[in-house]
Amino acid sequence: MRNIFKTFISCIVLAVGVTSCYDEMDSKSSIDAQYDQTSNITASLGESSVLTFSEVSVNGNISGTEGVLEVGFMVSTSADFVSYNSYKAGEITSSFSSVINNLTENTTYYVRSYAYTIGGTIVSEVTSITTPVAPIFELNGVYTAVDYNTEDDSAGESYEVAIEFVSGSTTDIKITNLWGGGKTIDAKYDSVTGKVSIPAKQVIYVHADYGDVWMEDVNGSQNISGLFTPKGGFLNINSFSAICGAGTFGDQYVKMSHK
């Protein structure tokens, strides 16, 4: 009897579900009206600008949003868009923008905006934008730095870090304000390999409640490693633990770009 009862209830639920689906379906005239609306939508491009040798900013517009499922940009190295990458914009609005990164230096890219609609894909006119040659930097100077949490790769707010060689040395450097703590720490630099080595246990921050915060290598070695890339001026500091007397602030890594 229990099995029969379950089966009977399931049938009722299924019947209600089917009825609900039919109730919620749009009429043919409503669907046709949406299609007519989207078939009249046009897409256009706004201003484009070069941010760095590997980043550009692009802007797009559509004449309406009814029936639009997605908006964004198509980017290709060929004017006929035989192959391209799509970059979806965030919200579906009449004006939208994106920062497109990881581009190749000294390369011409062709860009057009698009709108995916229930009636098909709408594209704009095409514009071209050329990335400049990547600059070559020395290690010393000022950087824009961002800290990342190794658990989820979440990023903190950007801040500035300064690096300078110790007077008379080509290997000894000082790093100021790593982790945003305002402290200056010592490190070694190998100009042949680009490797940076930071001795562990150095204080990078003084917390108002927990006191000194210092660096420790996540693998327990005596040094935290980093790598400087002259083309583009990138300095990445590999994972380290931020430790204080009361515990840990977790494992971090830092990405820096030369200003």
From TrEMBL:
<protein>
    <recommendedName>
        <fullName>Fibronectin type-III domain-containing protein</fullName>
    </recommendedName>
</protein>
